[in-house]
Amino acid sequence: MTGIAGPGGGTEEKPVGLVYVHAEGPDGGVGRESSFPGDRAAIRSRAAVGALHLVRRLLEPASVTKP
Question: pTM to 2 decimals?
Answer without folding.
Answer: 0.80
